[in-house]
Write a structure and sequence with these properties.
alpha+beta; Immunoglobulin-like; five-stranded antiparallel β-sheet; 21 helices; 28 strands
Length: about 800
């Protein structure tokens, strides 16, 4: 029979087992108890800040709160003030402070309602994470349990950061970072003791902050905390007195917006809700913004309202200034980031064609290029000033941005090949087939952005510099070309991995930048003469068709500066040209920048060539005026001078002769610089000393002589469209020819019918019917020109 003692022992054992089971079950349930995952799922403000932590811009969170991304550290003053006000024993308890709980319980029981919380910072983090549930005893118990779980999973400093990042600070201000900037217009690290204390007391009663109201109650809380800090030895009595004298925060400050368009671009790039540390230089950003604003304001009188500027450090690839647009009335689209907008490139692709042709051995920097009217099917390019010079040296054609020489050069080089070349050196916006652009590609028929174009020029400069300095590093994409960076934490890959993808040789790039330093600019390039810096600038301007875009991009060895000016809505304005509207701003920006006048010749890819001074080509036996010049080795593959020829004159040097009509022993042999007839006709207008070869002596066989009669328009087998006038009637088609002898007469015949003659200016306006036609030209010496063409009707 079980005794009373045995029964007690048995009951005690059962109770102990049940207690152990309950504790075990409770432990298991506690461990399985989920915390909110994630703890905080609210949207965050997107911010950008400089490398030294200065806030440069912020975009409010999607829920309308100024809630900066979670901080990763707290300034000592704020942390100290916060702990002394909210949770002095934070670093000693396990998420719950029993003494505080007991005191709160007694107070609340006596009052019959919740008057005192007794919550630790850990419990408040749980409360905020759970959406600030109603304050009931059950919720308080539940928060207590979760706070203990929180302490097991998170380090004390992490819990402190969570609290400081998500605590309410009044109105729509959440977190210490947003509060510091909104109320004191400075970073948390720069807060005074008074400011830190003023913010530390706010989460306890965020509604207390309201300018003009509750000031005494708010000040009383702050000053009481300051006194407590003083009593604990954090600062002396003088500091306490001065701190209490500081004013309370007033109306919230507007947050800095130093680079709003870069902020928007980072959001598009997937950086929304993050703290983004950017490479911008705050001082330079402010300066470039001011210069751009002032410059565009001066253009407002011409109804030009938008502008953008981009400054990138060449060797590091870091963006130092990003002004995506200027402040303007909303009707003028100031929010459009023009740096990223695709616009017509104007003439900005000409330097790349110049370098590509040199790289192929098709062009020498001083080689003569034709500059005269040409007509292609559906395309009739013109120079900007509507003037033609017959023939110009290639580097001069680039610095003067002449259109015709580059259209003809592109035709010779191949627009399909150039299209591929541009894509491979970084022009991703060239996303349509080459035939879509055709030859107009070189005159603005393609679109690109300021960001992309600056990147392309900078890329080529880095290839050039890398050939001399293998230590240069920068960030490169999969194609081994750099994408200049905006963020300080972007990964960096050695430039040595690039090894120049062999798209353009170093020597051709060097030649391109040398030509871009040319000082002979048209009058449109206002501002160049006023540029005070002695450092040479390689630069290029561009103007789009219809005067819609004005561009200027330049490099000084250390920085590349890109400028765009125009109207964001695409409205063109007279006078909106690169040299007048964009270049002056570019020079003003360069005056704020240091330079690195690096100008080394890539000797491994160059050699000394003997060239003809007049034609710029390698000498032929007939060239008399020669010079030795260091040029890219690819010039070895280029043709010798095609303009100097040996001609035979009679003893008076008045006529050309040959053995069929003149005694060889009496001939005078002379080297002559002779241009084709069309080029010669325009060339002579700007070079009055130019002389065409003399006529042949009467009776001489001219079967082997060079052509002196040439058609400008139309070309043989061309398709001609009949122009339509404003009144709806069909107009004349202007036919044009050229003759090397300015005094010669040309006789015109169409389909066997004589039309008339022309002297000096050989132009004839004709009314022609649709269909096939034959044109016959004859000069006074009997030289003939016959060809067919087709009239297609109105376009």
């Amino acid at each position: 029979m079980m005794t009373m003692s045995n029964m007690k022992k048995k009951i005690t054992k059962i109770l102990k087992n049940r207690l152990v089971q309950l504790l075990l079950l409770g432990s298991i349930l506690f461990l399985l108890l989920p915390l909110p995952d994630p703890l905080f799922d609210q949207p965050y403000t997107t911010t950008i800040e400089s490398a030294d932590g200065q806030l440069m811009g912020a975009r409010i969170a999607d829920d309308g709160q100024w809630r900066f991304p979670r901080v990763d550290s707290l300034p000592t003053k704020f942390e100290t003030a916060l702990l002394h006000f909210e949770d002095e024993y934070f670093y000693y308890h396990f998420g719950v402070n029993p003494i505080s709980i007991f005191k709160a319980f007694i107070t609340n029981v006596k009052s019959g309602s919740i008057k005192r919380g007794g919550s630790t910072l850990s419990m408040q983090v749980i409360r905020m994470a759970r959406g600030n549930q109603p304050r009931t005893i059950f919720q308080k118990l539940w928060e207590t349990v979760l706070a203990i779980k929180l302490e097991l999973l998170y380090a004390k400093n992490e819990i402190l950061m969570l609290y400081a990042s998500h605590a309410p600070f009044g109105g729509n201000v959440v977190g210490i970072s947003a509060a510091s900037w909104r109320y004191f217009n400075r970073a948390p690290e720069r807060l005074s003791w008074a400011e830190a204390a003023a913010l530390a007391v706010l989460p306890n009663q965020p509604s207390i902050i309201f300018p003009g109201k509750n000031d005494q109650a708010y000040k009383g809380k702050r000053d009481l905390l300051l006194t407590k800090l003083h009593q604990n030895g954090y600062f002396d009595a003088t500091t306490l007195t001065l701190a209490k004298a500081e004013e309370l925060p007033g109306q919230p400050h507007d947050l800095p917006q130093l680079a709003p368009h870069l902020l928007g671009q980072l959001i598009k790039d997937g950086k929304k809700g993050l703290r983004n540390q950017v490479t911008l230089d705050v001082s330079l950003q402010n300066t470039v913004t001011r210069l751009t604003e002032n410059h565009v304001q001066q253009l407002n009188a011409n109804y030009i309202f938008n502008g953008a500027a981009l400054v990138v450090e060449l060797l590091s690839g870091e963006t130092k200034a990003y002004v995506g647009n200027v402040n303007a009335e909303e009707i003028h689209s100031p929010s459009v980031d023009v740096i990223q907008a695709k616009r017509s490139t104007g003439s900005l692709l000409k330097p790349f064609l110049y370098a590509a042709a040199i790289d192929e051995g098709q062009l020498s920097p001083k080689q003569l290029l034709g500059d005269y009217p040409v007509f292609f099917e559906g395309f009739a390019p013109r120079n900007f000033d509507l003037q033609y010079h017959g023939a110009v040296h290639a580097d001069e054609a680039l610095t003067r941005s002449l259109n015709l020489p580059f259209v003809m050069l592109l035709k010779e080089y191949g627009y399909q090949k150039f299209h591929q070349k541009l894509q491979r050196i970084g022009m991703k916006s060239l996303d349509k087939p080459a035939d879509h652009y055709g030859l107009s590609m070189i005159l603005g028929g393609a679109e690109s952005s300021l960001d992309e174009l600056v990147n392309m020029y900078a890329n080529l400069y880095r290839v050039y510099r890398h050939s001399f300095d293998q230590s240069i590093t920068a960030q490169y994409d999969a194609d081994n070309y750099i994408q200049h960076q905006y963020l300080t934490n972007q990964a960096v890959t050695p430039l040595a991995t690039m090894q120049n993808p062999e798209e353009l040789s170093v020597a051709s790039i060097w030649s391109m930048f040398q030509a871009m330093k040319g000082l002979h600019r048209p009058e449109d390039f206002a501002g160049w003469e006023q540029f005070r810096s002695s450092t040479p600038i390689s630069w290029k301007t561009g103007t789009s068709f219809g005067f819609r875009d004005a561009w200027a991009i330049g490099l000084n060895g250390r920085y590349v500066v890109g400028v765009w000016v125009g109207n964001a809505d695409g409205e063109g304005r007279p006078g909106l040209v690169g040299g007048k509207a964009a270049a002056p701003l570019m020079f003003q920006i360069f005056e704020q920048l240091e330079s690195d006048p690096f100008d080394e010749v890539p000797t491994s890819e160059t050699q000394v060539f003997e060239i003809c001074k007049e034609s710029g080509q390698k000498v032929n036996p007939n060239c008399e005026n020669k010079e030795e010049v260091s040029l890219p080795i690819t010039i070895e593959n280029s043709a010798a001078c095609s303009f100097h020829q040996l001609i035979h004159l009679d003893k008076t040097q008045t006529y050309q002769v040959n053995s069929s009509c003149y005694d060889v022993n009496q001939m005078i042999h002379k080297s002559w610089f002779a241009l084709p007839p069309v080029q010669a006709w325009y060339y002579r207008q700007y070079n009055t000393d130019y002389q065409s070869p003399p006529k042949f002596l009467a009776g001489c066989d001219q079967s082997s002589k060079t052509t002196t009669l040439e058609m400008i328009y139309p070309k043989p087998n061309a398709k001609v469209y009949i122009p339509k006038e404003l009144d709806g009637t069909y107009g004349q088609t202007i036919f044009e020819a050229a003759h090397s002898d300015t005094k010669e007469t040309i006789y015109w015949h169409l389909d066997g019918i004589y039309l008339g003659s022309t002297k000096r200016v050989h132009q004839l306006g004709l009314f022609t019917k649709p269909g096939q036609h034959e044109l016959h030209l004859l000069d006074g010496q009997g030289q003939e020109l016959n060809f067919r063409f087709e009239v297609m009707g109105e376009r």
